[in-house]
């Protein structure tokens, strides 16, 4: 993989100016977390609360729990973190045998109470239905038209893809079909990335799209079952991992045990970014521990993009496993050069103007005693817009670092994600700041823009090999522009991607 080195005559950051703005800069935003539990006799709302705690990193804008007691479903949801939305009296009021929960980050629809999940709809026969969704649908326009024709939604209200899905599922109940049959008939029409947990108050259901883009696992309690986006949420409630919900599989759990049906053939294309950044390091995806993958990516990065340095430090926390791997393979000592103010990025209070000028210092503080006079190798999980890296490098230099060599544990992000992750528009991605197709020129431009002494990325092949998964079973679209499920309807970024793809085709053809 190419490594760009600082030209001693070039002042850092002289090519492109990317001022740090903490409203403009963000890591790739996680999508959502879903959780479901069937456990009569247990405090299912509290189990869900703690499950959602383990999934908080997947969405921090809203949280909700729906509880069913066999007769009706009660939903409580609001904007905010799990700990802000729920307290003991609220959880005490949510009594039942079955619960589903959701943590939300907005990837489609606005961040409003109406769009918080679980969604609730009532079927024509009076059956309550609640649903939580992780992912993004790409044929939401078609589904909305169908729901509109059936009189289930008002398009003027701009219903979210999840609301439309819930309305269609509820509407399919009747004429001898229960929610399981309704889902089995509807899901083959639904295109896009989805992991669903849903319930009619009596049975817990879960389904995963045929590509298995997002993870979803089944766990066993002593007296019940759990379904969760990540295995770390099974661990926190004391459930043992049984298996994943297979791509294209619909399951139902109640007093008869676990039933399963296939509504589509599996065509596995798991999101590689779950391994790189999104999932918790203590989670296991398709039998592979996420922390192990990140360590291995770090080792691979050290081989592919070696650096001369005195100390390897991570950008905490997401860069830490890869930095440890880099240190192991390079022989350069590992150290903590920055301390993360872990919760400030998750507050809903806007900083004052004076505080805002501190920029990255609100989130990260350098350890001067550790880094002064050192040649640092700074390992981060990804570069999206580049603003954070630029601010971090400036901060490290001000704290006395002699040199700052940046190594990135994922390839350059050049394409937006339409399957549930919010990166940025194609024009905002720093890897697209240079129009040249020459990889070395692109890396050099990014290096210069962020002000590093050198910059190196792990290769796509190196990243894929670190997962130990076959490349044909992974989605790599944000790195290579090959979208396994195609592009969404009526989406301005998809139009841009069409143009980018057409431009590349033209160049290949000439
Ligand atoms: S485009 Fe990237 S982030 Fe989105 S599903 Fe594919 S690999 Fe994951």
TrEMBL record:
Q: Please list the residue ranges annotated as the Glutamine amidotransferase type-2 domain.
A: 32-256
Q: Which GO terms describe its biological process?
A: 'de novo' IMP biosynthetic process; purine nucleobase biosynthetic process
Q: Which reaction does it catalyse?
A: 5-phospho-beta-D-ribosylamine + L-glutamate + diphosphate = 5-phospho-alpha-D-ribose 1-diphosphate + L-glutamine + H2O
Pathway membership, UniProt: Purine metabolism; IMP biosynthesis via de novo pathway; N(1)-(5-phospho-D-ribosyl)glycinamide from 5-phospho-alpha-D-ribose 1-diphosphate: step 1/2
**Top enzyme class:** transferase
Cofactor(s) required, per the database record: Mg(2+); [4Fe-4S] cluster
The active site lies at 32
Q: EC number(s) in its UniProt entry?
A: 2.4.2.14
Which GO molecular function terms does the record list? 4 iron, 4 sulfur cluster binding; amidophosphoribosyltransferase activity; magnesium ion binding
**Which SUPFAM superfamilies does the record associate with it?**
N-terminal nucleophile aminohydrolases (Ntn hydrolases) (SSF56235), PRTase-like (SSF53271)
Where, in this chain's numbering, is Mg(2+) bound? 318, 380-381
**Iron-sulfur among the record's keywords?**
yes
Coiled coil: which residue ranges?
none
Please name the InterPro entries in this protein's record.
GATase_2_dom, Ntn_hydrolases_N, PRTase-like, PRTase_dom, PurF, PurF_N
Q: Does the keyword Nucleus apply?
A: no
Q: In which residues is [4Fe-4S] cluster bound?
A: 271, 417, 475, 478
Family that this chain belongs to:
In the C-terminal section; belongs to the purine/pyrimidine phosphoribosyltransferase family.
**Function according to Swiss-Prot or TrEMBL:** Catalyzes the formation of phosphoribosylamine from phosphoribosylpyrophosphate (PRPP) and glutamine.
Name by which UniProt lists this protein: Amidophosphoribosyltransferase
Organism the protein comes from: Corynebacterium efficiens (strain DSM 44549 / YS-314 / AJ 12310 / JCM 11189 / NBRC 100395)
Q: What is the lineage of its organism?
A: Bacteria, Bacillati, Actinomycetota, Actinomycetes, Mycobacteriales
Gene coding for it: purF
């Amino acid at each position: 993989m190419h490594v760009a080195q600082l030209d001693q005559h070039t002042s850092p950051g002289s090519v492109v100016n990317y001022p740090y703005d903490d409203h403009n800069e963000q890591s790739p935003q996680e999508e959502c977390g879903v959780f479901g539990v069937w456990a009569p006799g247990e405090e299912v709302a509290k189990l869900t609360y703690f499950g959602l705690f383990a999934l908080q990193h997947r969405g921090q804008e809203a949280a909700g729990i729906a509880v069913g007691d066999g007769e009706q479903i009660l939903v409580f949801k609001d904007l905010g973190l799990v700990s802000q939305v729920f307290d003991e009296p609220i959880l005490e009021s949510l009594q039942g045998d079955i619960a589903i929960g959701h943590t939300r980050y907005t990837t489609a629809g606005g961040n409003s109470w109406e769009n918080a999940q679980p969604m609730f709809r009532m079927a024509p026969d009076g059956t309550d239905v609640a649903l939580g969704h992780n992912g993004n649908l790409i044929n939401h326009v078609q589904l909305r038209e169908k729901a509109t024709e059936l009189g289930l939604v008002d398009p003027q209200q701009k219903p979210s893809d999840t609301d439309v899905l819930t309305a269609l599922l509820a509407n399919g109940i009747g004429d001898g079909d229960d929610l399981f049959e309704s889902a089995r008939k509807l899901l083959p029409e639904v295109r896009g990335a989805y992991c669903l947990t849903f319930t009619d108050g009596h049975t817990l259901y879960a389904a995963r799209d045929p590509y298995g883009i997002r993870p979803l696992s089944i766990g066993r309690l002593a007296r019940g079952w759990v379904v969760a986006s990540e295995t770390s949420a099974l661990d926190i409630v004391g459930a043992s991992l049984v298996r994943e919900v297979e791509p294209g599989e619909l399951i139902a759990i109640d007093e008869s045990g676990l039933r399963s049906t296939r509504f589509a053939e599996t065509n596995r294309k798991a999101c590689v970014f779950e391994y790189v950044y999104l999932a918790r390091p203590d989670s296991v995806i398709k039998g592979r521990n996420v922390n192990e993958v990140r360590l291995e990516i770090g080792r691979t990065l050290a081989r592919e993009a070696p650096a001369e340095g005195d100390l390897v430090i991570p950008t905490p926390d997401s860069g830490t496993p890869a930095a440890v791997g880099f240190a192991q393979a390079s022989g350069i000592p590992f150290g903590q050069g920055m301390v993360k103010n872990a919760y400030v990025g998750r507050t809903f209070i806007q900083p004052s103007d004076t505080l805002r000028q501190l920029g990255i210092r609100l989130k990260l503080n350098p350890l001067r005693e550790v880094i002064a006079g050192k040649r640092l190798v700074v390992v981060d999980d990804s570069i999206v817009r580049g603003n954070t890296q630029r601010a971090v490098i400036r901060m490290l230099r001000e704290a006395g670092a002699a040199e700052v060599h940046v190594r990135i544990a994922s390839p350059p992000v050049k394409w937006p994600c339409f399957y549930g992750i919010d990166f940025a528009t194609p024009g905002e991605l720093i890897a697209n700041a240079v129009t040249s197709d020459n990889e070395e020129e692109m890396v050099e431009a990014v290096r210069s823009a962020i002000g590093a002494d050198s910059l190196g990325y792990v290769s796509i092949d190196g990243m894929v090999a670190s997962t130990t998964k076959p490349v044909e079973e992974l989605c790599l679209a944000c790195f290579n522009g090959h979208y396994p499920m195609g592009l969404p309807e009526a989406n301005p970024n998809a139009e841009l991607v069409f143009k980018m793809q057409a431009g590349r085709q033209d160049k290949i053809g000439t």
